[in-house]
Write a structure and sequence with these properties.
It is built from eleven helices and no strands. It is mainly alpha-helical. It is globular and about 60 Å long.
Length: about 280
C-alpha cells in the first residue's frame, strides 16, 4: 500500500470538489475552507499506512498530533471569522474585478486550486520521510516538537489579539484608529500570525529531516532533503500574499505607511522606533 499514492488520490479528489464548487457557487474560497483540514488527513494517512506495514514510530505519531493541533486551531479561528458561512476572501473579489472573466477562471484553476492544493500535499511530505525512516526519537526531535508548539502558541496569541481588535472595531461602528492592530505581537511584526504559521511547517520539515538523519542519511538527502520544497513554497506564498494584502490595506488606511516603515513585515523584531499609537 503506497501512502503517497493514496494522498495524491485524495488530494486530486479534494481539488476537483473545490474547483467544481467554485464554479457552481461563484465563490473561490473553497480551498481556504479545506486548508486546515486536508493536510491533517494526509499526515494521518502516512501514519496509518506506516503502522499497518510495521514501520510506525513515536516520532510519526507526534507529527500526526502536531498536525492535528495545527488544524484544529486554524479551523476554529477560520470558523469564528465566518469562513464556513459562505463568505469569500475579499482579496479574490478584488482580483476578480481586475481580470477578465476567463483570466480569473484560469487563475482560479491553476493558482487557487492546483497550486495551493498541491502545496498542501508538499508541506506534509516530511511525514512520509519519517515513515520511511522509523527510529527512536532524539533530543533534536524534542527540540523541534517544542519549537512547533511554541510557534503554535504564538499564532494562537496573534490571532486572538487580532480577533479582539476587530471585535472592538465592530463595536465602535466599524472605525477604530488607526484601522488595524498595532499592539501586542503586532507591535513587533505586521503579520505575526503569518510568521508563526510558516514557522510551524519549517519545524515539521525539521522532524522529517531528523528522522532521515537518524536513519543514516547525511547532510544532503537527510538534513537537506527534497521535502523542503513544501516549506519553501509555503513561505513564498505567504510573502506574495502579504505584499498583495498590504497593497490593499495601504490604500484604506493612511497610517499604514508609517506602521510599515517602523515594523517588521513578518519576523517579530523590535520596531525601528515607536510604532503607531495604541488603539484606545
Amino acid at each position: 500500500m503506497d501512502a503517497l499514492l493514496i494522498v495524491i488520490i485524495v488530494a486530486a479528489a479534494a481539488s476537483l470538489v473545490c474547483w467544481v464548487l467554485s464554479l457552481i457557487t461563484r465563490d473561490t474560497s473553497w480551498v481556504d475552507r479545506a486548508w486546515s483540514i486536508v493536510p491533517v488527513a494526509y499526515v494521518w494517512i502516512f501514519v496509518g499506512v506506516a503502522f499497518a506495514e510495521g514501520d510506525g514510530s513515536a516520532r510519526l505519531v507526534a507529527m500526526g498530533l502536531l498536525a492535528t493541533a495545527w488544524g484544529a486551531r486554524l479551523t476554529f479561528n477560520f470558523a469564528r471569522k465566518g469562513g464556513y458561512t459562505g463568505m469569500e476572501d475579499y482579496r479574490w473579489a478584488i482580483l476578480r474585478g481586475r481580470m477578465r472573466p476567463w483570466q480569473f477562471q484560469l487563475f482560479n484553476l491553476f493558482f487557487i486550486i492546483a497550486y495551493q492544493m498541491t502545496l498542501l500535499v508538499l508541506i506534509t511530505l516530511p511525514a512520509m520521510v519519517a515513515a520511511r525512516h522509523p527510529s527512536a526519537m532524539t533530543g533534536w526531535d524534542v527540540l523541534f516538537i517544542a519549537a512547533f508548539l511554541a510557534f503554535l502558541a504564538g499564532e494562537t496569541i496573534a490571532d486572538q489579539q487580532q480577533w479582539v481588535f476587530h471585535q472592538r472595531k465592530k463595536a465602535a461602528g466599524g472605525t477604530l484608529s488607526p484601522g488595524f492592530a498595532t499592539t501586542g505581537l503586532f507591535r513587533y511584526s505586521r503579520h505575526p500570525n503569518f510568521f508563526f504559521e510558516q514557522a510551524q511547517w519549517w519545524a515539521f520539515y525539521a522532524l522529517g529531516a531528523s528522522a532521515a538523519v537518524s536513519g543514516g542519511a547525511g547532510l544532503v538527502g537527510g538534513a537537506l532533503n527534497p521535502t523542503i520544497v513544501g516549506a519553501v513554497l509555503l513561505s513564498l506564498l505567504f510573502i506574495g500574499s502579504t505584499i498583495f494584502t498590504e497593497s490593499i490595506t495601504a490604500t484604506k488606511y493612511p497610517a499604514y505607511a508609517e506602521y510599515r516603515r517602523t515594523t517588521s513585515m513578518l519576523v517579530p523584531w523590535a520596531p525601528r522606533r515607536s510604532a503607531v499609537a495604541p488603539q484606545t
